[in-house]
Design goal:
Layout: H1 2-7, E1 11-15, H2 23-40, E2 43-47, H3 51-57, E3 61-65, E4 69-74, H4 76-81, H5 86-92, H6 96-99, E5 115-117, H7 123-133, E6 138-141, E7 147-149, H8 153-157, E8 172-174, H9 179-189, E9 193-197, E10 203-208, H10 209-221
Parallel strand pairs: 1-2, 5-6, 8-9
Antiparallel strand pairs: 3-4, 6-7, 9-10
Region (Disordered): 227-249
InterPro entries: ABC_osmolyte_uptake_ATP-bind, CBS_dom_sf, P-loop_NTPase
Protein name: CBS domain-containing protein
Amino acid sequence: MARALAADPPVLLMDEPFGAVDPITRQRLQDELINIQHELQKTIVCVTHDFDEAVKLGDWIAVFDEGARVVQYDAPERILAEPADEFVEDFIGSGAGLKQLTLTRVREVDLVPAATARPGEDVRAVLRRADETGTRDVVVVDDRGRPLSWPSRRQLERVGTVPRERNERLPLVGTNSTLNDALDTMLVSSTGAALVVGARDRFEGVIYVETVMAAITEARRSVAAEDAPLGHNTGELPAVDATPGGGGR
């Protein structure tokens, strides 16, 4: 029995894991959980009352009514497109179209490239490099390619060398973040754009609000998940005779 149990894949149960943290920290912890899951490939069962969080984290969502009755078990996109009943509609809440943004990851959209610069580098060389590549953004990165600051062209033209200061309030989103996360980050920072970082926080590119708006338009046109199975409590479960010779397994 012990050997059989050891062979089974472990399941991690998380009950409201991010309910007590602020929104920005919650977003980063969710992204980190997704990164960990991609590396370890473990099954995670997450209990939450936040539907946006369920859509972001879950490959499948089970919506429970009172009495632990499963009212819908589906892929997130199917639940958003075809809620089983009024209870699920109320649980989803208003703005279902915007919630479609939670289905798309930042890595799935085209990012805008930016010229990168190192602290202490000659500004004229940096601006010349930006002009040659046709990029309007210059991002200062450290030796590991992690963003330090995001100065405007006008700010750079006022100095001779690239500044070394780190901006602690940079609008950052990860490649595993959702477009909804990216939009939240843009609104909080009032920049209309955000820097995208990948593995080990290495700079990957810039995402603009226009990209998010285009995704909203596309989400209104069509909703995927044609092959998602339905999971409603629409009938009785078949009884199984477990007595010897009764056909039970």
